[in-house]
Structures are given as structure tokens and as C-alpha cells.
Amino acid sequence: MKSIYVDHAATSPTHLSVVDAMIPFYYENFGNPSSMHQFGRKARLVVDEARAVIAKTINACEREIIFTSGGTEADNLAVVGYAMANRAKGKHIITTSIEHHALLHTCGHLEKNGFDVTYLKVDEYGEIILEDLRNAIREDTILVSIMYGNNEVGTLQPIKQIGDLLAEQSIAFHTDAVQAYGIEEIDVKEMKIDFLSASAHKINGPKGVGFLYANSKHKIQPHLFGGEQERKRRAGTENVAGIVGLREAAQIAITERQAKNKQYRAFRDKMISIFNEQGITYEINGKTTSCLPHILNVSFQGVGIESLLVNLDLAGIAASSGSACTAGSLEPSHVLKAMFPSDKERTMSSIRFSFGLGNTIEEIELVAYETVKIVQRIKK
């Protein structure tokens, strides 16, 4: 059986057009954007052009886009940067129990430095309850950070309703949109989002580059010190080739978004239909509507996830048990623990299939049938 990659939520292959766009900026147009000579000016021009393209994809202003090394840095800059710049107004932050560790560990750092963090619970589908958010708001609440779509189970949060609620309270709103950017239609003005994190390697761009949208009305404190790049908000020479790759990947993702959404939903439906026709016992984790179409998280009762993943790998199939950032851990997913606190077996028997560039319906059928065979063999 040929190798099949269905772990695109962990990282995605770089689109050939992205690679082609990046190559000249390694050896030909290699200038430093801060240099005043022609080499620097050419580099500055492409960085500014990329900033305009990225801003347009989410209905932001160019000056509100800060290029970073990826989603983790964007999360850190938004949450720590805003908290430290505005701590005189209050030291209470609200987030959820299912955030990516880039956010959870950032909040843990702030707790060690005098901030109080409330972690909202989620329901069995991985969605917050808006009334819980409303009740958690205090006079000293300055920031709420809730991810757009979950990287493990795909559930989308009610971002527009959250934005409306927080705007009424004049509380800043950050969302980690690393899994949603390029998949979902995002308008930061309409949704009243103040900060948004995204990463290139989730949308067939290069690793090591991403961006933070930061509403120009909010002040953030930088945590890198050096030059005056990114309007003094993020020091360090810009990754010009990476930024060009991000721009190209974003343009492709936005252009193909509707077609890809349709394709990924067809992949989900095909896998589920094969599981049904083969009569195996399974449970879908997360919502089946209002979800990221490229993520399907499934629990197979009585099947140890380690055995399932090893057997899939031996069959040439690359899937995962959750976030790549917790690879090697034998602990159940913190996301599934939050969704099913009293059902340990379900949290220990879940697998995530995530679709992307290069996958075909024929591949998905092969993955589904091979999964069925392995599940049946393990249960025997």
C-alpha cells in the first residue's frame, strides 16, 4: 500500500507554487528590508505587498499585520503583549480548557506573574457555553482568548457572538485561528476580533512564519528587543522568503477555499459511510456541523490508540492522536478530557484524521477500509 498522509492539521506539504515564489528570495533578492539601498528596497517592497495581501484576507488594515515566526509566537505576542501593556487596567484573563498549548502555557506563565486566569469548560462537543463566558467576566477582565476552531476535534466556537459580547464590555478579544485561517471565511471587523493568530505551514506554506493581526486601537508590549521592525512590535530581520511563501499560500487558500471545503466534507462523509457500512463501533468527537471540514476525530471503543497508530503507520497511513505538540505523550488529550471528563476509555481510543493538499477520494477510501481492518483485528 502506498503512503497516505492524513495528518494535515499537524503540518501540511508546501505547495509547489509557494516554493517557486520563495526561491528567488534566498539567492537573488536576498536584501535586508531595513537596508536603504536597492537590495533592501526590493525586499521591503515584497514584505509590504505581502502585508497588504494578508490584511485583505481578513478585512484588516496593513499596519495591523505583524509577521511572526508562526502561531506560537503570535499567540504569545497577543496575550502576553496585551496583558503586560494593560495590566494597570486589570489582571484577569479568560480562556478555555481546550486551547492549544501555545496559549495554555502562555496563560500559565502569566499566572506565575500575578495574573488571574479563568479556564472555561466546554460541552461534550467541545463548544463553550456563552452564558459561562458572560458569568466569568469581572471588572478587572482585560482580555479573552478563545480559539476559532479546535485543532484536535475541529469544533468551531461562536466567534461572532463572543466578539459582540466582549465589544459591549470593552474587553479585548484574541482568537487562535491557526487551524481556521484559509479554511473559514474570516472578517475581523465584522466579528469584532482584536487579535488573531495564524501560521503558514497549516495552509501549505513554509514552516517558521506566521502573523498576528493586532487591532490598531490596542497597545501591546513587545517581548523581543532589538531593531525597530514591524513598527517596533517585533524586533528582528524579517523572514522575507517565508513571508513571500505565506503570501502565496494565503492567496491560494483563499482562492480555493470553497472548493476545498466541499472536498474535505466529502472526505469526512466517505470515511463515516464506510465505517457505517462495515458495521464497526465508533463515536465522532466534536460537532458534525459548525466544524472545520478537514478534521475528523473518532473514538473506537476497546481499541488502544497506540496500537491503532502503529498499525496504521505500518500500513503506510500517517494519522495522529491529536496535537503534534504533545507527540510522544501517553496522557490522553486535554481536549478530550475536557469534553469527556468521566469517560477515560473514549479519551484513550481517539484518532484524528485531517485532510489536505494531495489527498484524493480514493486515498480516503483506502484509509477508511484499512482502519476498519485494523480496528477489527485489534479487537479480536
Automatic annotation (TrEMBL):
Its EC number is 2.8.1.7. It catalyses: (sulfur carrier)-H + L-cysteine = (sulfur carrier)-SH + L-alanine. GO terms for molecular function: cysteine desulfurase activity; iron-sulfur cluster binding; metal ion binding. InterPro entries: Aminotrans_V_dom (IPR000192), Aminotrans_V_PyrdxlP_BS (IPR020578), Cysteine_dSase (IPR016454), PyrdxlP-dep_Trfase (IPR015424), PyrdxlP-dep_Trfase_major (IPR015421), PyrdxlP-dep_Trfase_small (IPR015422). It is an enzyme of class 2 (transferase). PROSITE patterns: AA_TRANSFER_CLASS_5 (PS00595). It holds the Pfam family Aminotran_5. Its cofactor is pyridoxal 5'-phosphate. Residues 4-366 form the Aminotransferase class V domain. Keywords: Iron, Iron-sulfur, Metal-binding, Pyridoxal phosphate, Transferase. PANTHER family: CYSTEINE DESULFURASE (PTHR11601:SF34), CYSTEINE DESULFURYLASE FAMILY MEMBER (PTHR11601). Belongs to the class-V pyridoxal-phosphate-dependent aminotransferase family. NifS/IscS subfamily. This is cysteine desulfurase. It comes from Anaerobacillus alkalidiazotrophicus.
